[in-house]
Amino acid sequence: MRIENDNQAMELALQWAARSMFITAPNPRVGCVIVKDGYVIGAGNTQPPGQAHAEVQAMKDAASRGHDVRGATVYVTLEPCSHFGRTPPCADALVKAGVAKVVMAAGDPNPLVGGQGRAKLEAAGIEVVSGVLEAEAREMNIGFMKRMQHGLPWVRMKAAASLDGRTALHNGVSQWITSPPARDDGHWWRARACAILTGIGTVQEDNPQLTVRAVDTPRQPRRIVVDSRLQISHDARILEGGGTWIVTAVANAEKEARLRDLGAEIILLPNSAGKVDLPALIKELGARQINELHVEAGFKLNGSLIREGCVDELLLYLAPSLIGDACGLFDLPTLESLDGRKALAFHEIKQIGPDLRILARFT
Ligand code: AOF
Ligand code: ZN
């Protein structure tokens, strides 16, 4: 394909990055396209942790097609790394390969990189341009960016409701408010998350697995249950397969031992009210390298997370139906004045099958 300008090449690099959507956690998804004499000679994307970064993949791709990357321009969606992590620095590899120019979308906020990748390239006489499609590139790694800058994950709360914001009938019957395409779309968002969080209420009522099934992914996100009093049943489906984190406010050696036998890990994080300290939990998840946290919980935990300022974004599916007086979406306090309302901004609105998908961010 003939490349006419930087934006077109970076657009292509972003498409390569998207191939890494489900596989790189806790690393960012990066795409790289190498252009020489106006044509793409190699492309690649970040592999799972411990394996090659995008730039190395793209150089390998070029070599496998018999192309020499000397003098080429490299388009990469994130600043090439400068450090020895699980893999050696991409900046060094680019210098060694003799590329002429690197165009990057966004800087890498990882303190181990933070401008040093760029500096290494420039010190070797490579021309560096940055900021091409930066907003799009940052968006793709919104969780990695937030964790690197603030030590916290990006928290996305998914919910589905009727057009009048109802999630269930007064008698608790809740299934199939939104359509199969909307439910499948929800699995795509699960798949890209590092972890999926729910509450003990949802575990007891729905007994969900909270795995990704509707899209093909080689990696299942970590599952996390907020269970203040350690009430989870040993045959809860969310424990199947092991690896589930159970966050509680009470220590109970016997129950904990049983749960550990089932492959679960117990995280004790009480607040002064004897419940799980939610802001402390979010912080802990950042420390545990969770970039994107996907919340699929019920009325109560959703409300608590919002009230405690733990949520960045709502992923809301709205079905074209009215249910009337029934269960609402979020347990929030009754306000006497509109001054107390939670303000959001719509980020994206899309129709998925018959339903609406709204991404709205807290301001
Ligand atoms: C790049 N290209 O494709 C990615 C980068 O442990 P490592 O060696 O895999 O390094 C992980 C860090 O490298 C990660 O935290 C981020 O700063 C950077 N990711 N860098 O040059 C890539 N995925
Ligand atoms: Zn790298």
From TrEMBL:
Binding-site residues for Zn(2+), renumbered to this chain: H53, C81, C90
Pathway this chain belongs to: Cofactor biosynthesis; riboflavin biosynthesis; 5-amino-6-(D-ribitylamino)uracil from GTP: step 2/4; Cofactor biosynthesis; riboflavin biosynthesis; 5-amino-6-(D-ribitylamino)uracil from GTP: step 3/4
Annotated GO MF terms: 5-amino-6-(5-phosphoribosylamino)uracil reductase activity; diaminohydroxyphosphoribosylaminopyrimidine deaminase activity; NADP binding; zinc ion binding
Gene Ontology annotations of biological process type: riboflavin biosynthetic process
SUPFAM superfamilies, sorted: Cytidine deaminase-like, Dihydrofolate reductase-like
Keyword Oxidoreductase on entry: yes
Catalytic residues, chain numbering: E55
The UniProt record lists the keyword Phosphoprotein: no
Binding residues annotated for substrate, in chain numbering: S174, R190, D206, L210, R213, E296
Highest rank taxon of the organism: Bacteria
Reaction(s) the record says it catalyses: 5-amino-6-(5-phospho-D-ribitylamino)uracil + NADP(+) = 5-amino-6-(5-phospho-D-ribosylamino)uracil + NADPH + H(+); 2,5-diamino-6-hydroxy-4-(5-phosphoribosylamino)-pyrimidine + H2O + H(+) = 5-amino-6-(5-phospho-D-ribosylamino)uracil + NH4(+)
The species this protein was found in: Noviherbaspirillum denitrificans
A Pfam family annotated for this UniProt entry: dCMP_cyt_deam_1
Cofactor: Zn(2+)
EC number: 3.5.4.26, 1.1.1.193
Keywords on record: Hydrolase, Metal-binding, Multifunctional enzyme, NADP, Oxidoreductase, Riboflavin biosynthesis, Zinc
Domain CMP/dCMP-type deaminase: 4-128
Segment forming the signal sequence: none
Protein purpose: Converts 2,5-diamino-6-(ribosylamino)-4(3h)-pyrimidinone 5'-phosphate into 5-amino-6-(ribosylamino)-2,4(1h,3h)-pyrimidinedione 5'-phosphate.
The protein's name: Riboflavin biosynthesis protein RibD
The family this protein is said to belong to: In the C-terminal section; belongs to the HTP reductase family.
Cofactor details (free text): Binds 1 zinc ion.
Binding residue positions for NADP(+): A160, W176, T202, S228, G298, F299, K300, L301, N302, G303, S304
